[in-house]
Amino acid sequence: MNMETIAPTHKQEDRKTLVRRISRDSSQRVRLIVQWLFVALNGWLGIQFLLWVRYCERGGFALSVPRPAGAEGWLPIAGFMNTKYLLLTGHVPEIHPAAMVLFIAFVLMSLLIKKAFCSWLCPVGTFSEQLWKLGRHVFGRNLYPPKWVDIPLRGLKYLLLGFFVFVIGAMSAEAIRDFMSTPYGLVADVKMLNFFRDIGQTAAIVIGLLVLVSMLIQNFWCRYLCPYGALFGIASLLSPVKIRRDAEACIDCGKCARACPSSLAVDQLVQIRSVECTACMACVASCPAEGALQFSLVPRKASIPAERWRRRALSPVAVAAVIVFLFLGVVVAAKATGHWQTNLPKEMYIDLVSHAREASHPGLE
Ligand code: SF4
Ligand code: SF4
User: Fold this and answer.
1) What are phi and psi of 212, to 5 degrees?
2) Burial of 233 (0-12, 13-18, 19+ CB in 10 A)
3) What is the C-alpha separation between 320 and 315, in angstroms, rounded?
């Protein structure tokens, strides 16, 4: 190991000995691969879904592709409602079961490995990250709202989550089933697609502004507005794995805090409990000191020798394996038990999907 004494950048009297990390950190490379594989999966599902919608809109006279149930991952509210239905009745709902399966998988993921869904899987999170990196490249820096602006803004996503919890919490199992059986509920995914296909001027301006602000402020949507992320953040409080710092090995350089897209004071805490931590491991990647910072099952205690503590770290490959295992595990289990597809007759879908677009845009095909 390479040992040197450095002058800490933080205000402190003592100099600490830097035991420089030799092994190269692979967390950001592994995370990037997982992120873009998931974007590709979503792209593939999106194309298949679009072809299926065209098939239905043309009355069955077009390229025939099966409806990809995985697209229901874009229906988190339906997933939330169906999870409540399952808890109340003990029965898996027949409409949009995949939305529920994926919703449960992502909550489980948060319970196990913090909000890893947000920084490893969610395509919105991936694009948000690329946008602030692009913004830093174009404008030379990102903006960091002062605390008095940042903290109230962070509360917005909990208000939105509270709204959904209030509305869905007040629904009985019968009300959920009845809603899902309405023409709107049956093709809620098609309605969402149509929103983007026939986007109005106001919505386009709002999305354009969101893109611009996301270039300026790191993870603007995720940090301030996403109720899904708010829910995962609350679930992540129970995660046994956390970013943990060994204050003895740490040289107080502050690089981890500067690298954290959630603006967490990683360099001043021994573990990160925050609901804002997305397990992105950017802090770990930036740390120059051997064993100072890791995504770990156990906190660093005096009773645990440093070497043994370091062996309790969750490697980036292990994080990726947990994510892939959980994601594929629930999907395969749901498919094997027949709780994945919404089984409606083809003729019914043709009727519903063609009317779903006509209802809001009578002039369209
Ligand atoms: S504390 Fe580390 S893992 Fe958590 S969000 Fe910040 S950089 Fe990512
Ligand atoms: S934990 Fe943070 S402050 Fe400590 S050495 Fe690593 S990067 Fe520097």
Assistant:
1) -65, -45
2) buried
3) 9
Which ligand has an atom closest to residue 19 CA? 2
Atom 4 (ligand 2): residue with closest C-alpha?
Answer: 250
Distance 286 CA to ligand 2 centre (A): 8
Q: CB neighbours of 203 closer than 8 A, spacing ≥ 6? A: 195
The amino acid sitting at 360 is S
Q: Which amino acid, residue 193?
A: L
Ligand 1 pocket: which of 277, 294, 296, 314 to mutate (most atoms within 8 A of CB): 277
Q: Ligand 2 centroid to 18 CA: how many Å?
A: 10
Q: Which amino acid is at 70?
A: G
Q: How far apart are CA 327 and CA 27, in angstroms?
A: 19
- Residue 270: DSSP 8-state: S
Residues near ligand 2 with C-beta < 6 Å?
A: 245, 250-256, 266-267, 286-287, 289, 292-293
| Local structure of 219: helix, strand or coil | coil
Q: How far is the C-alpha of 67 from the C-alpha of 342, rounded, in Å?
A: 9
Cα separation, 173 vs 101, in Å, equals 17
Residue nearest to atom 6 of ligand 1 (CA): 260
**Burial of 259 (C-beta count, 10 Å sphere; 0-12/13-18/19+):** middle
Minimum CA distance residue for ligand 1 atom 5: 277
Dist. CA 284 → ligand 1 center (Å): 8
Mean pLDDT by 10 residues, the chain (365 residues): 41 66 90 98 97 94 92 96 98 97 97 97 97 97 95 97 98 97 96 94 97 97 97 97 94 96 96 97 96 91 85 93 96 96 94 82 45
Cα of 295 vs centre of ligand 2, distance in Å, is 13
What's the rounded Cα separation, in Å, for the pair 241 and 260? 17
What are the tokens at 337? Answer: 């038990």
